[in-house]
Specification:
Blueprint: H1 15-42, E1 49-51, E2 57-64, E3 70-73, E4 76-81, H2 89-92, E5 99-109, E6 112-117, E7 123-125, E8 135-149, H3 150-156, H4 166-174, E9 179-184, E10 190-196, E11 215-224, E12 227-231, E13 238-239
Parallel strand pairs: 4-6, 10-12
Antiparallel strand pairs: 1-5, 2-3, 2-5, 3-4, 5-6, 5-7, 8-9, 8-11, 9-10, 11-12, 11-13
Length: 241
């Protein structure tokens, strides 16, 4: 059987060697494409979330200061945040239950909505009466999952959760973004709760060491309209084994 070998100083390899190399390259290319396809299909899809960056629209409604700044406009509640990594608690403080007009860019994920507002557009309007639903105490509960910053989680980043997002979440929460607590049920479906301290205080700096980790939180659960609110104390948090 005739054997072929390649001599480096020759301009071309023998036909047998050329054919073998081509077959090997083609096989490796197909295997690489197959591996990429399998890895892509194995990834969880991104959440159906969106951020209308820079697309400001006019909104009017009733201001809600607790547990976090919100605008109740029609049948929709919008959490409110400022541009960048800042909250708007100072703007809304003292105006709970009053009517306001503002411009905001919509952030949404499923049935949860938020507005990144232009602070200069914030104007109070004549009051037309309080239309909100009262808070309902649902009793004590212990929940397990992770703390997230609501601005990124609801659509500014995707995915806006997990350890890879930790540093960004810490900065958003330090700047006053509403604190969220992401709960998953046995089927993997998620629900976003709002997290506050006892007597409803903002937890900001107190919970930064707990962000983006699986933890267990005992607390008191409240419902305010469609929002679920967990009042809890960081000293009672525990990391899940």
């Amino acid at each position: 059987m005739k054997e072929f070998f390649y001599i480096g100083y020759q301009p071309r390899a023998s036909p047998a060697i050329r054919h073998s190399v081509r077959r090997a390259i083609l096989a490796l290319a197909l295997i690489s494409l197959l591996v990429v396809a399998v890895l892509a299909l194995a990834q969880s899809p991104f959440a159906a979330s969106a951020f209308a960056l820079g697309q400001y629209r006019d909104y009017e409604g009733e201001l809600i200061a607790w547990p976090y700044p919100m605008l109740l406009s029609g049948n929709t509640r919008y959490l409110l945040v400022g541009p960048g990594k800042f909250g708007v608690a100072e703007i809304v403080r003292g105006h709970d239950g009053e009517q306001a007009r503002l411009r905001g860019a919509l952030i949404s994920r499923g049935s949860d909505h938020m507005l990144e507002i232009d602070p200069a557009s914030f104007h109070l309007q004549p009051s037309v009466g309080n239309s909100r639903q009262p808070s309902i105490d649902l009793g004590p509960i212990t929940l397990t999952c992770e703390i997230v910053d609501t601005k990124c989680h609801l659509g500014v980043m995707n995915p806006g959760e997990g350890k890879l997002h930790r540093e960004c979440a810490v900065r958003c929460l330090s700047g006053g973004a509403p604190v969220g607590f992401l709960v998953r049920d046995a089927t993997g479906n998620t629900r976003l709760l709002l997290l506050v301290g006892s007597v409803g205080r903002f937890l900001g700096q107190e919970i930064l060491d707990w962000v983006a980790e699986p933890i267990t939180i005992p607390g008191q659960l409240f419902r305010q309209g469609p929002s679920l609110i967990l009042q809890a104390e960081p000293r009672k948090f525990s990391r899940r084994e």
